[in-house]
Amino acid sequence: MELMSIFQLPFRQAFLIFIMFSVVGWISEVLYVGIFHEHKFVNRGFLHGPLCPVYGFGGVVILLLPASLYSTWIPLFFSSMIMCTVVEYFVSWIMEKMFHARWWDYSHYKLNINGRICLLNSVLFGFLGLGVIHFVYPQMLRFLDWLGDFAIMISSDMIGAALALDMIFTVRKLVDFSATMEKIKTFGESLRDHYGSESWFHGENFETMLASVKQYAENNKDKINKNILEKIEKLQTARNKAAESFMAHFPTMKSIQYKDELEHLKKHLKERVKARFEK
């Protein structure tokens, strides 16, 4: 079967191929994290649905390579490796600029660049390119041919609508997440304003601020504003589903703008999960 470039495909077929790559990527992430790290099911997608769009873009990028490379192995390996690595780097950069958070971090891997990409992943992308072109893409084309034009039209329109709704809900979660981070940051700044000059106050990070205020309040409640103590208690017991969802999906996520605030939420999420298992 002669492989067609993705440029030769109608838009709906190209869109379904993007979706199929995204689903395969999501399944791979879930299995990898579930089997080797978390030992449980973790939805590794940025969206609610079973999709990892970065894999969809990566798969499509591989199909943007010249058709003359499709029958090769070594040139295809290195071309896929380079193209997908570039995509991963810029997706990481763009998402950080948009949402003030880094959703994955490879700083703990050897031979990484700014924690956004690493040699290990790049090599895996090379093998991914070989698998896509020589094995996966031909099967996708056969599947689309089997579906027929009418089924392709209906399924692509329905999936497109579902994806649009998913993106809307995800953006709302991101707004809620950012609002939570900003609320915690503002409260930390108010604590510094109130008690920054006190000898007992430790303002190294958000956790030490809360701990020092609570410890001082144990023997000096009349000197600590009751509303502040109530806010501290609320921060340490309240749940934020949007924040917990993103932290569960991306355990290595880091925030440039809200570093201390994110660490605070991660700490209490871990404590909550630990308490749940101990019951």
Question: What key phrases describe this protein's structure?
Answer:
elongated; mainly alpha; 279 residues; two-stranded antiparallel sheet; 4 strands; 9 helices
Short précis:
The protein has 279 residues and is mostly helical. The chain has helices spanning 11-38, 53-63, 74-99, 119-147, 149-195, 206-219, 226-237, 241-249, 259-278; strands at residues 101-102, 112-113, 117-118, 254-255. Helix content is 70%, strand content 3%.
Descriptive notes:
The chain is an all-alpha fold. The protein contains nine helices and four strands, in the order αααβββαααααβα. It has helices at 11-38, 53-63, 74-99, 119-147, 149-195, 206-219, 226-237, 241-249, 259-278, and strands spanning 101-102, 112-113, 117-118, 254-255. A two-stranded antiparallel sheet has the order 1-4. α1 (11-38) crosses α5. The protein starts with 10 loop residues before the first helix and ends with a helix.
The dominant shape is elongated
**What is the CA-atom radius of gyration, in angstroms?**
24 Å
Q: State the share of residues found in helices, binned by percent.
A: over 70%
Structural class: mainly alpha
End-to-end gap:
57 Å
Q: What percent of residues are in strands?
A: under 5%
**Biggest sheet record:** 2 strands, antiparallel
Low-confidence stretches: none
Helical segment count? 9
Number of strands: 4
Describe the secondary structure blueprint for this structure.
Elements: H1 11-38, H2 53-63, H3 74-99, E1 101-102, E2 112-113, E3 117-118, H4 119-147, H5 149-195, H6 206-219, H7 226-237, H8 241-249, E4 254-255, H9 259-278
Antiparallel strand pairs: 1-4, 2-3
Helix pairs in contact: 1-2, 1-5, 2-3, 3-4
